[in-house]
């Protein structure tokens, strides 16, 4: 899997950032997220770990949510692209397998943490939706449209419902820990949803 470059996360005004200090702050943030989680993460703790002042962090990242999101993307998020195999079912199956492997990795634990912590931090959840979910859903909509144009899917497919049916169970298992994201499970899920979306022959 390729790695998606870090998106531009809006930051506060101030002097240009020292790259060495920036890297130290982002690395400290990731370490502390893994150690104590989002709720117990403090700017004071990050500053102490990175050996810099709190004012420096607040000048560059006005909120904890902005800091955490930039740290998350700075470490690289593996891409989960859609192939063009000539079959919309196979395109989704392969992409969903990539996503399941991402969710099973340490990065998946961070994704679960961001979603969970976002329930108490609207800015964090909005940033996660904008930078992680929205681009992937937009790409998935185009794959559904491609399948419709090819005559593989019904013309009245509602893309939002279809995507929730395909990906909702993956996120549920990521967040709940119930069951596993095995290749067999992903294949069965994809087949089940695609049967309902397929154009009648």
Question: Quick gist of this model?
Answer:
The chain has helices at residues 19-40, 43-50, 54-60, 64-74, 88-103, 106-118, 122-149, 159-176, 183-197, and strands spanning 3-4, 77-78. The protein is mostly helical and 201 residues long.
What topology emerges from the helices and strands here?
Layout: E1 3-4, H1 19-40, H2 43-50, H3 54-60, H4 64-74, E2 77-78, H5 88-103, H6 106-118, H7 122-149, H8 159-176, H9 183-197
Antiparallel strand pairs: 1-2
Helix pairs in contact: 1-2, 1-4, 1-6, 4-7, 5-9, 6-7, 8-9
Can you walk me through this structure?
With 201 residues, the protein is mainly α. The protein folds into two domains: 16-62, Homeodomain-like (Arc Repressor Mutant, subunit A); 88-197, Tetracycline Repressor, domain 2. Helix content is 69%, strand content 2%. It has helices at residues 19-40, 43-50, 54-60, 64-74, 88-103, 106-118, 122-149, 159-176, 183-197, and strands spanning 3-4, 77-78. Strands 1-2 form a two-stranded antiparallel ribbon. Helix 1 packs across helix 4 (64-74). The longest helix is centred in the last third of the chain and has 28 residues, at 122-149. The mean pLDDT is 89.
